[in-house]
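Complex 297.
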Amino acid sequence: MNNRISSLVLVVISVLCVCVIGSKPKAHEPVEDGTAALVAPEGMALIPAGEFQMGSYDAEGGESEQPVHSVYVDAFYMDIHEVTNAEYKKFIDANPQWQKGKWWQIERIRRRYHNGQYLKDWNGNNYPDGKGDHPVRVSWYAAMAYAQWAGKRLPTEAEWEKAARGGLVGKRFPWGDSIYANMANYGGIVGDTTPVGTYPVNGYGLYDMTGNVFEWCLDEYDLDFYKKSPYRNPLSGSYDIGWLINNFTKIRTPRAVRDGCDGCVPHAVRVADRTKRNPTYSNFGFRCVNGITSQVF
Ligand SMILES: [Ca+2]
Ligand SMILES: [Ca+2]
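Predicted structure with calcium ion bound:
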């Protein structure tokens, strides 16, 4: 009898061992090593899955950037540069409802999707001569519409910060703690936007994660979000990223904005810096991302 019980226990232990040894990572839990073999689409860079430290350690950034907390972000692709005037022009040519126009032109951009300053530096619906490769500046609604048209989406704040850090830990800028005129377009040194790709890339191959133009994110701005942020793929203000993307025209709350502009002081173009603005504000840039969680690793 005792032998039979012992045999049964042995069989159960054996089965458990086989199950544990044979288990594989689930498709929606990409591992750091598994992303290395992926090839990014043209114009995008792979940001590998993994954990990073989000926020700033010192008092420089203030309350909104603290506490520093661990965040895990799934792998994704990100545009290597900010969306340009020439790229945006293709979007409005294909979508007249996002062109500039008078309020009575019902096929043109709705008044509630901008603040009256939409494409203010353009000549009608043409970008300024010689500035096709400069970043475009538009409202959050327009950025969301562009991203949808391009088959992409805006990044979350966590995705943006992880990407900006370029794999470094606890640094103020994508390359280190000090900033120089040959590294980024900031501080009024140039006095205008610069063509995308003018300055060196960061560790993930991304341009202008510091300077040139501010960049819209998906999230609702929440100053206290870091005190309560979930660990995996955080997104403030929406439970469902798919709902947000499909219902963005219903959004009225301020959105999170990252980075800073060509005229911004060094403090304002740090990778941890956070800003908010109403989604109608029409003078910020953006870049898009694509999630790749459907990939099997
Ligand atoms: Ca930028
Ligand atoms: Ca900033």
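Residues 259-260, 268-269, 273, 275 surround calcium ion (ligand 2) (CB under 6 Å).
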